[in-house]
Structures are given as C-alpha cells and as structure tokens.
Amino acid sequence: MKDHYEVVLAGTGGQGVILCGIMLGEAAIMEGKNVVQTQSYGIASRGGSSKAEVIISQEEIMFQQVQKPDMALVLSEEAMNTYAGLAEENPVFYDTTLLKARDGQNFYGFPFTEMSLELGHPGTANMVALGVMSAVTGLVKPESLEQVIKQRFTGQAADMNIQAVHRGVELVKR
C-alpha cells in the first residue's frame, strides 16, 4: 500500500461516478486518511460526460487536483479513450458489459452492469465497481464502504448497495 493515491472515476451522467467518488472519499476518511474529492460533469445531467477525482493520502494534501492518476474507473468508451494510456503503468477498471474488451495486464474488466442486473438493481453497477476496486487495490476496506452506505442510505436501498459492493469483492475472488 502506498501513502498517496490519485484516483479518477469517469463515465457519463447517470452512472453514479460522482457518488462513487464521494463514497470512496468518505470510506477513506473513516479509515483516518486525508481526502480531497472533486467532480465535473457536462451540462446534460444524464448522458453527458461525468468525472470524479479523489486523492487519498496519509499525509496532508497540498494540491487538490489529480496530477498523475494511480488508477481509473471508466464506464464509457469516451472515458476509456481518455484514460486507456494510464494502463501502461496503473490499473484501469472498466465495465465489460458496456465497453469492448481490452488487452494488457493493467486492464481490469468486470461485468459491473451485468452483475447489478443479476441483483435486480441496475443502478448499483457503480457499487459493484467500488467493491472490485477495493478488493484489487486495498484502497479502502469493503467494510468501510459498507459503513458509508449505511450512513447514506436506509432500508432496501442500503441493503442493495451493500450487496452490490460484496458482489464486486466476490468477482475478484473468482
């Protein structure tokens, strides 16, 4: 584990990448880490480009913009075109349900959307992705994500999002 991570989460509006970034940051804070989270999105709330950046560090964070991403989650072909080069040295996670397969040791393709559909909750693909990222990188603990979900959601919404994170962790263990 490194002491400093810069993470990019990118896709289109409506896929939950902004929420992913917020929840990733909150989970890191629960673990006593310093966090900065920024977001940007196109003028269309659904279908336009959407991006969240999260910096997680054991030390004080001096510059609040991602300068050199250590990993990326991409949920659209447009985002993949932007961040595919990152896979030369760092992990790039992507949804094999939505994007064409990529070759290379640092491409981590998983069927996030397919898994969320199997769970009966298509809107939880982003949580499946967080589970995968957590399991592969150790960036935050799945238990921390579960705590954040319990704080942010109640009842069935909390249960389905927790289930989605666990499904992501299970995908990595296969």
Structure description:
This protein has six helices and six strands. It has a single domain, classed as Pyruvate-ferredoxin Oxidoreductase, domain 3 (3-Layer(aba) Sandwich). The chain has helices spanning 17-30, 77-83, 112-118, 125-137, 142-152, 155-173; strands at 4-12, 34-41, 49-57, 71-74, 92-95, 107-110. The chain is of the alpha/beta class and 174 residues long. It is globular, with a radius of gyration of 15 Å. The protein has a six-stranded mixed sheet, sandwiched between helices.
Give the helix tally.
6
* CATH architecture classification name: 3-Layer(aba) Sandwich
- The beta-strand count equals 6
Widest beta sheet: strand line-up: 2-3-1-4-5-6
Q: Name the CATH class.
A: Alpha Beta
Order of helices and strands: EHEEEHEEHHHH
Shape: globular
Radius of gyration: 15 Å
Derived structural class: alpha/beta
The figure for the number of domains is 1
**Describe the biggest sheet?**
6 strands, mixed
| Proportion of residues in β-strands | 15-25%
Query: What is the average per-residue confidence, as pLDDT, rounded to a whole number?
Result: 92
CATH-defined topology: Pyruvate-ferredoxin Oxidoreductase, domain 3
Q: Considering DSSP H and I runs of 4 or more, what fraction of the residues is helical?
A: 40-55%
How far is the N terminus from the C terminus?
Answer: 22 Å
CATH superfamily: Pyruvate-ferredoxin oxidoreductase, PFOR, domain III
**Uncertain stretches of 5 or more adjacent residues:** none
